[in-house]
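Quarterly update, task 2.4: adenosine-5'-triphosphate-bound model.
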Amino acid sequence: MAMDPAMDPAMDLTDRGRQITSHAKGERSALGPRGRGLFGRLLDGIRGAPAVRREAVSIAVASGKGGTGKSFLATSLAVLLHRDGRRTTLVDCDFGLACDHLLLGIKPTLTLQQLLGGQATLDQVLCTSPCGPRLLPGASGVRRMAAPSDRELLAFARELGELAQREDVLVLDLGAGIAPATVLTMLGADWIVLVTQPEIAALVDAYAVVKCVAQLNDRARFLVVVNRVPVPGRGELAFQRLTEVARQHVGVELHYLGEIVDDGAVTQHRLGQLPLVATEPEAATSRCLRRLADRLGELCGGLQPREVPGDQGIEGRFKQHRLFL
Ligand SMILES: Nc1ncnc2c1ncn2[C@@H]1O[C@H](COP(=O)(O)OP(=O)(O)OP(=O)(O)O)[C@@H](O)[C@H]1O
Ligand SMILES: [Mg+2]
């Protein structure tokens, strides 16, 4: 492959990845001292082997650069998976600037903020959207929520574990980039759908996310969506460049989920407007999203809930990785 200079790993990609990894490993006390986590594990050991439980498949929708279309894709997938008969909850994990409730036409009164603060229960916070899937809404414009405390992260892990026992699929819509809580959620999920665009800045940032996450978990599984392609076929070309760099420089094999063309019809302009897949299921972009959802099912083993030992589910993985951030 002819390497674009901006994609040259000897240049900014490596430096970018290094910078990002050190950020993710940063000294933020919000993620808690190691000792506290180890103490927790010791307690788990004393309590004995955790029981096996049925858990939903969890899919984190992530990106390096902001505005690549994560929330659009996450809400669309949640609607489509619900219509397939899967019990689906969309979790708005964009801690500072949540917006999935707007995209699903919901006006929540309670959000993750009250749930993680202990002022509301999961059942009080969960909403059912007019299009079907449930939503765990995030807080928007609450600066403190943009950097959840260690206590809030542990509460979040517990609530995800609880939700996973009730549902078939959890779609986790993340904020852009590699804030610690975002990386942790990627590490806790079964699959990471990485949403990028064909432009170089978005591809470089997507690579940086792969590098950052793979250094913390070399078994992380990435599915790539190239959004807003100007012409059909451009997505696969962009994916080839990204996957080659990821294979060569971090030894990670990425999988291609598909592309979505740039289509002004997807943008929701007024409050209460529902996603395109719900209002115009036969539109070209809705059919494209349908194919993406089907392929997601194929690549993710049918998106079937499965039995896992209690400490190896999403809650356990989240808590375990928290020790190393
Ligand atoms: N395929 C597309 N064609 C045209 N516009 C699109 C497409 N996908 C997304 N958009 C538009 O791009 C904007 C950003 O999308 P979205 O909010 O889903 O991105 P995001 O990745 O969730 O952003 P953030 O990083 O801020 O969370 C929205 O206005 C959305 O309607
Ligand atoms: Mg978003």
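Highlight for this quarter: Residues 70-71, 94, 99 surround magnesium ion (ligand 2) (CB under 6 Å).
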